[in-house]
Amino acid sequence: MVRITRWILRALGAVSLLAHTSEAIELTLSNEASVKSAASTIAFGLVKYYTGNNTGDVPGNLPDPYFWWEAGAMFGTLIEYWALTGDDTYNKITSQAILHQAAPTRDFMTPNQTRTAGNDDQGFWALAAMLAAEANFPNPPADQPQWLALAQAVFNQWVSRWDAETCGGGLRWQIFTFNNGFNYKNSISNGCFFNVAARLARFTGNQTYADWATKIFAWEESAGLITPEYDIYDGATIKNTNDCSSIDKIQWSYNHGIFLHGAAVMYNITEDALWRKRVDGILQSTKDLFYDENGVLIEQFCEERGFCDTDQQSFKGYLTRWLAGTTQMVPDTFRTIRPLLETNAVAAAKACTGSPAANLFRGVSGTACGFRWGTGVFDGLVGVGEQMSALSAVMTTLVSRVAAPFTADTGGTSVGNPSAGAEGPGSSSPRAVLKPVTLGDRVAAGFLTSAIVLSVVGGSAFVMI
Ligand SMILES: *[C@@H]1O[C@H](CO)[C@@H](O)[C@H](O)[C@H]1NC(C)=O
Ligand SMILES: *[C@@H]1O[C@H](CO)[C@@H](O)[C@H](O)[C@H]1NC(C)=O
Ligand SMILES: *[C@@H]1O[C@H](CO)[C@@H](O)[C@H](O)[C@H]1NC(C)=O
Ligand SMILES: *[C@@H]1O[C@H](CO)[C@@H](O)[C@H](O)[C@H]1NC(C)=O
């Protein structure tokens, strides 16, 4: 069945290539205008997947099959698109989406999502807010939540959920006990916490955030989730109340990206040799694991075997953006990272020649982006993940042309609140009240988790809900 599917996809790809060669995306890396124009075409196709701007729809939500977290990731990507290109076409829908999803409690514990949201889901919205602060993305009106305060709110809730009772620390994947995955401590949840803590430390200069970043990284190492060779494993299941030796060793590109970038931020503010060692080690491990002999980025666990799910089809874009961010924090990594960025911008653009059947893709005909960048053609796989990753691949080649992210001392204007986040459900505050969990909630959460886990051959509980 897999072979047939691949054959069909290849045939579709070939047909669309023949039919649309004239509409392929032009990209000349040495020409800033060409890169911006290519990025603009791909971004247009990306935003066409978004329905939250339609009358009657909910701002910030993507339609099925995309989970809530991926919308947060998309708006983070669009903020970076603006920061790299100066094109503000999508700023308005981005602000609207983030502010709507920030929820009445101003912490991304959005009532419609909290029953199924994990720490990592909340995390991708917090990362978008953090980037908005660093990029000086236009500040919301004063009566609305502010970017920096939103990131601080989520940070404070993560602190309150740190679980020293099992595995010597760490965040659990899920926030609520009734969700499958509450007994799992995973690298992406702790990676979100680590990355946001490091960036809050840099932005605000507050040592408390730096101390947490140090503690989280050390915990990942002591739990065996980051190895001495800088392999980064998916997570550990808590068994028999406190046996955490059962590790899921699948490696995903976004885990390398999120820890690499956070370590680069920590090196930037401390100039400590240990952080430098971690930056160099993760960067080497990233190259070895996720880039093929031609320097093309591959989601190594599932891409070649053809079973990356909807979530996993978006991971390469985040690694790419965090690599670009690493060059801003540790400028001499640019030598190593630049060729990776440039090779993949060209490869990804070549995969953006599709015109799939109606309703899947509504961008400019002949510019839908596929998933595999190593083939030189459109592979027939399309969606938010593919489009967002290709956009990231192309736009990040502009990184050396823009200023480094701001801090409060260098012109960052976002207003913070160090004690934000105390009121939302799932915080440690006694004021936080959660409605009693219904059977329907349990069924919904459990059903989603097992359906996704089953969809990945041989995989275990590593999928985000
Ligand atoms: C969002 O909706 C408004 C109102 O319908 C429209 O004017 C605007 O062009 C839309 N923005 C995008 C980026 O689609
Ligand atoms: C929650 O869902 C309701 C009903 O669809 C919608 O009106 C509301 O805007 C949603 N709230 C958020 C924060 O998404
Ligand atoms: C920290 O980042 C800034 C901004 O990119 C850069 O100028 C500086 O050299 C970096 N510091 C270190 C120690 O790499
Ligand atoms: C630093 O951050 C911690 C943790 O959020 C907070 O309790 C403290 O008030 C902050 N200090 C300052 C000076 O903002």
TrEMBL record:
Pfam families in UniProt: Glyco_hydro_76
What is this protein's record name? Mannan endo-1,6-alpha-mannosidase
A Gene Ontology biological process noted in the UniProt record is: fungal-type cell wall biogenesis
List all membrane-crossing ranges.
none
UniProt keyword terms in alphabetical order: Glycoprotein, Glycosidase, Hydrolase, Membrane, Signal
Q: Which GO terms describe its cellular component?
A: endomembrane system
Hey, what's the signal peptide range on this chain? 1-24
Catalytic activity reported: Random hydrolysis of (1->6)-alpha-D-mannosidic linkages in unbranched (1->6)-mannans
- Say which species the protein is native to: Podospora didyma
Broad class of the protein's primary localization: membrane
Q: Does the keyword Hydrolase apply?
A: yes
Indicate where this protein resides in the cell. Answer: Endomembrane system
Q: Does the keyword Hydrolase apply?
A: yes
InterPro entries linked: 6-hairpin_glycosidase_sf, Glyco_hydro_76, Mannan-1_6-alpha_mannosidase
* Gene Ontology molecular function: mannan endo-1,6-alpha-mannosidase activity
Q: Which domain of life is it from?
A: Eukaryota
Similarity-based family: Belongs to the glycosyl hydrolase 76 family.
Q: What is its EC number?
A: 3.2.1.101
